[in-house]
Each structure stands twice: as structure tokens, then as C-alpha cells.
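@channel sequence for tomorrow's demo:
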Amino acid sequence: MSSELEYYGFRDLVNLRDKLATLEVLENAIKSNRYDRTSLQKYFGLAESHIEFIFSLFPELKTNQKPPHNKLLETYRQYKAEYRRIQAKMLQGMELWIFPKFRSLVGAVCKGMFEGRPISDIIDSLVVILVPSIENNILLLHMFSGEKCVGIFGLGSYIVKFTPEVAKEPTIFLLPIDAIIMDLNFYELALNSPKKLSIPKYSDFVREHVIRVPLAQVAESDFVLRLFAPVMRDISEYLLSYLKVIGSLPKGQTLDDVQILSAWRGAMNKILVTREKFDRILEEVKKGIPGLMGYEGILDKLDELPLVKAEFAHISSKWIAWARFVVAGYDLIESLAKLR
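C-alpha cells (generated this afternoon):
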């Protein structure tokens, strides 16, 4: 295991999750009046280590006596509080950035193609990207062509809901991305768009064109969790789709696996890949991308981008960010999307 993951408390969080699950099983066992050692093994599938854990907390179980319900609840609360503390540590510095009106933000008009066929209507288009560190993963880029851009690097997805020309019902298309680069003016437009929250401390986090979810603060505070819930509810369909995209281990191992969404005028509204990958996916290129102008194979020529110059560092950072999020943030975002 990475020393960086150990630093954030990866192992402690996994162990606490296991203990919380064991306490939940015990509560169900007590409700069904089957809490002796044999029943815990036979009917609830607890391993010997789990049974020894709950017996250490509630010694009365050894003589088949039911522990007081308030003692069980208080024990669960204590472990839950410790879990949330380490969860917040695991997510420290991470934000989930959402551009909920991507086409509107960058002024896109092209509807793109799907499976080589025209598209009738674009209903929604979003970009969702997990940013491991605001300081290290959001960078001002000076392109060799002269423009100033901002690069947001992380684990992301381009999401578009559209209606194909030959279909009556809309469909959702998702494309994993490793970054989005955009002209500086688009970035500033998003950050200065109208605020959607009235609470001063958090008003900058939710704006018309960009939503920033501070994951550590959401993890450690029920107030912040419920503050962001209505915002997430409006795009819950897309958030749940995003979670499916990044729920599996990142496939990218080399620069040829990287995909970047570009809102840079040098390659506007396109997915940037290396020339080698472009040649390899020509059939996909011909099919098109809903809402975008397609692919362009120039990524390996863009030495302005740090992931091109430091490929290994990017891959390592991506894997660690994925591990931190899957263990500590996945369920959090899922609960936000489903909270009513």
C-alpha cells in the first residue's frame, strides 16, 4: 500500500467501516433474538474475528445476555464519529467540480454525432471532475500558441443527455476524461457566475456555471451535507452516472490512455488524445461524440501540459486520488445524490 494512502488513514478507514458493519449486524441479530455465538456465525455470517470484536465491547453476550440498547447505540455513534473524522482526513483538499451547463459556458453550438448519425437535440451537458488538490491540480497554462488557459486535472467525465435523430427517447452518453483545459476567460466566467447559495461561507461553492463540493467538509458536517443536497439532487441522474464511470480502477497507464476535454480555442470543443491513440481508434472517431466536435490527436505535442512532461507522476497521482475517493468519497456523493 502507498505510504501516502497510509498517511491519510486508508487502512484505519477500511477497518472502521468493517466494525460499523459488524455493529449493524449485531443490532439486527438482537432484534431477531439470535445473538449467541452460533447464531451470529450461522445466520449472520460473522467471522470469528468479528464475534470477538463485539464480545469485547459487550461481554454480557458471552453469557447470552442482551446488551442495553442505549449502550449499543452509543457505541455505534462513537465509531461513526471516528469514521467520519478519518473520512474527512482521507478527503482533505479534494473537491468535486461540476460544470452543469458546459455547452452554455463555452458557447458550443455543434451537436456532434452518435454512432455516425446526426443528433436531434442536446438536453444537458455537464463536466464532472474530482480534483485531488486545488493547489496542485488546477493550473494556469501558457499555451505555445499564445493563449492563457486553465487546466483542471483529475478523475472526470464528460456527460451529455441527448436525443438521436432517429429516436424518440433521450439517452445519456459518458466519456471518461483526465482533465479539462479551457480558455482563461471561460474559467473566470464560471467562477464569477451568479451565486446559488445565500450562506456567505459557502456561497462561492455553488454558482450557475460551476459547483465545487468540498468533500472533507461534507464528510464531517451534517449541516454542510444537507446544504449541498438540494444542489446535488437536481443533477443526481448525472452524478450517479459519473460514479459508475470512476467506480472501477483507472485504466490509464500511459499517455496514450489519457483523454482531455478541450475548451481551448486551439482545439475547441474536442477530446484531445495522442496521435497513436487517434490512429488506433479511427472507427470511434468516425462515429463522433454527442455535443462535441470529435477527437484530435495532438495531446503528445502539448508540452505545456504537466501530464505530458511528467507522465509517471500523473498516473501515480491519479491512482492515489482514485483510491482515496472510492474508499472515502464514493458513498458520500451517492448519498448526496439520493438524499431527499
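heads up for whoever presents: Residues 95-338 form one domain.
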